[in-house]
């Protein structure tokens, strides 16, 4: 009887997980303080068709696992979507934020040639309910020649050490919004640290105004093109903590998700990304992998940031030499080609 009950519970759990996936253009799934969006804001640019489905796999406390699978063909210099997990919280001025702890582990499985990224996106405004004025993007993966928005095409700073990793810093405009992008010159193995440290650097080195309100935090993928791409986020957590009265308490989740809705195309085109050549973070480790570095197969997909369709150069060729037929990374962040 216990065995039968256990089987029933497992079946119910699997059924619930399956029901959490959506392939709708503006489909979303809520879990605790997170909203997982499919967000096919640029799908009309896929001149040869495509499909994307995104869903929740599990949730435990403040940690979730989620995935996104996609195929996009045609319109190779345009971003098609931004599957992402957004944290819901009450906007707070950065002067009152004491930390933004976050941890993520993910893997990407694909064959052939793709172009996509996987990033954190954080947005600020001079008002708690104002329009986005600044965007801070932390790149965890860039595949196939995608790069950050930049006024000059060159970093404004190089090799900046933040939270145990060195980053090149870029800046540029996405419409009226100033974008600061942190891109590691070599691959990173995921992230586990305090996102507030990036704002602290911007304040010290670029006079960023810390009276700005943090109004949005999300992590996701922006694909340009690719076939049968699977990205699995096996572990993701984030929180915004404030220090009013000397305490270090998490910002409460907003009871209304209207502040983070992504059903409006204009609001969804919110990050950066340019199709470029020679900007592939996956190529650096090809010659350093040992035979033991076989990446495990992924059943889910995810990657990147809400990208703008701004393009300065065409995408990398279909035979990009920076990609190999072997697993490229194996640690917390795994990028794999079959």
From TrEMBL:
Biased composition (Low complexity): 247-260
InterPro entries registered for this protein in UniProt: ConA-like_dom_sf, GH11/12, GH12
Pfam family, one: Glyco_hydro_12
Keyword check for Hydrolase: yes
Composition bias type Acidic residues, residue spans: 283-302
SUPFAM superfamilies given in the database record: Concanavalin A-like lectins/glucanases
PANTHER family, per database record: BLR1656 PROTEIN, XYLOGLUCAN-SPECIFIC ENDO-BETA-1,4-GLUCANASE A
Name of the featured protein: Cell 12A endoglucanase
Native source species: Hyaloperonospora brassicae (Brassica downy mildew)
């Amino acid at each position: 009887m216990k065995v039968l009950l256990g089987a029933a519970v497992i079946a119910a759990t699997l059924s619930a997980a399956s029901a959490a996936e959506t392939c709708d253009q503006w489909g979303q799934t809520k879990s605790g303080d997170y909203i997982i969006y499919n967000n096919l804001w640029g799908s009309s640019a896929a001149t040869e068709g495509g499909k994307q489905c995104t869903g929740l796999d599990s949730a435990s406390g403040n940690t979730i696992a989620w995935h996104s699978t996609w195929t996009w063909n045609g319109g190779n210099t345009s971003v098609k979507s931004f599957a992402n997990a957004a944290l819901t919280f009450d906007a707070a001025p950065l002067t009152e934020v004491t930390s933004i702890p976050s941890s993520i582990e993910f893997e990407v499985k694909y064959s052939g040639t793709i172009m996509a990224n996987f990033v954190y996106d954080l947005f600020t405004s001079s008002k708690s309910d104002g329009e986005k004025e600044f965007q801070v993007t932390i790149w965890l993966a860039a595949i196939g020649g995608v790069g950050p928005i930049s006024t000059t095409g060159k970093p404004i700073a190089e090799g900046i050490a933040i939270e145990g990793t060195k980053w090149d810093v870029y800046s540029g405009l996405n419409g009226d919004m100033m974008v600061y992008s942190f891109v590691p010159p070599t691959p990173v193995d995921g992230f586990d640290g305090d996102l507030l440290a990036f704002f602290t650097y911007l304040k010290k080195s670029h006079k960023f105004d810390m009276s700005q309100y943090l109004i949005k935090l999300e992590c996701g993928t922006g694909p340009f093109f690719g076939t049968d791409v699977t990205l699995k986020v096996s572990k993701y957590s984030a929180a915004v903590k404030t220090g009013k009265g000397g305490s270090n308490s998490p910002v409460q989740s907003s009871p209304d998700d209207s502040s983070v809705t992504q059903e409006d195309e204009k609001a969804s085109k919110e990050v950066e990304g340019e199709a470029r050549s020679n900007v592939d973070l996956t190529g650096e480790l090809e010659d350093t992998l040992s035979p033991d570095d076989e990446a495990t197969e992924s059943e889910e997909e995810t990657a990147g940031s809400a990208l703008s369709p701004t393009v300065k150069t065409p995408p990398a060729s279909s035979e990009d030499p920076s990609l190999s037929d072997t697993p490229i990374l194996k640690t917390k962040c795994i990028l794999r080609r079959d």
